[in-house]
Design goal:
Layout: E1 6-8, E2 11-13, E3 17-19, H1 28-37, E4 41-43, E5 47-48, H2 49-52, H3 54-59, H4 70-83, H5 85-98, E6 103-108, H6 112-125, E7 129-133, H7 145-160, E8 167-171, H8 178-187, E9 192-195, E10 202-205, E11 210-213, H9 223-233, E12 240-243, H10 250-259, E13 263-266, H11 268-273, H12 277-292, H13 315-327
Parallel strand pairs: 3-4, 3-13, 4-6, 5-6, 6-7, 7-8, 8-9, 9-12, 12-13
Antiparallel strand pairs: 1-2, 10-11
Length: 328
Amino acid sequence: MTSLKTKYLGMELKSPVIAASCSLTNSLESLIKLEKAGAGAVVLKSLFEEQIIEERIKTAATGFYSSFHTEAVEYIAQMSMNFGPEAYLKLIRDAKKELSIPVIASINCITKEYWIEFAAKIEKAGADAIELNISHLTHDIEKSGDTVADEYLAIFMAVKEKVKIPVSVKMGQNFTNISRMIKVLETHGAAGVVLFNRFYQVDIDIEKMSFVPGYVRSSHKDITETIRWVALVSGKTKLSIAGSRGVRDGSDVIKVLLAGGDAVQVASTLYKNGVEHIAKINSEIESWMKLKGFDTIASFKGLLNQKNIENPESWERQQYIKAIVGVE
């Protein structure tokens, strides 16, 4: 009998398809729909530091917060009233009562003290795990790559020291050595990583001559970068790995699993096709497994990662040459 069960962050999931942190995971009603559709777990919409310190956002007169655009300040203040820290903790408690699948909280902070404070509250509320959404984009010309990596690690360690539940890091891909960063996180007790975070995109309205939000959803072409890095690092770490960005259907999930991932996180495809699309994705995975003679995900997971390729040192170079020769 075909089984879609997989392990992620030390938890058994009934499906490798996880609903990623987004507006589809910010209400109990939506979470229930996601479980019924077949999601293996849900990652709640991120709780932002700006929501936590709403009173500072309202005044927004000095320090870091004075650099916020007025419209952004107003938006965050409104968001805090509708979905602030207390509402977030209540959602965790309610979700744990109603759902049988793991509930993973997500926090996005800047100041270390807030990461720590609310990680502890999230654990107390009953979350099964915490995903650190470290998404600040470094643009300080004086800051070295090592400094950025140290900041990520410091945030993780500060949270890890305060909670006992699994902690994962949703990583950006702008590291000098992604593999090294993952290994450092593993050494310090991380449970897993999500590859990759999608940073805020910007565009310019040339009529108004002002910045506007860029395209917020991932593109299907993003899956190739996800697959590359999952394949490169999965054989070198014991951490759980979730592939994110560009996952559209069952075939994309299979690709991530073959590359060595334990699960995938989806959001954009759910906006486009509806929450019910998860059931279709699961069905496509099952059909492929039956066709190939695989009863479990474990029986084919990682078959195409770098570790299982002959002469792994030249694996990436081989892919590059194949691509260029193929194009020519």
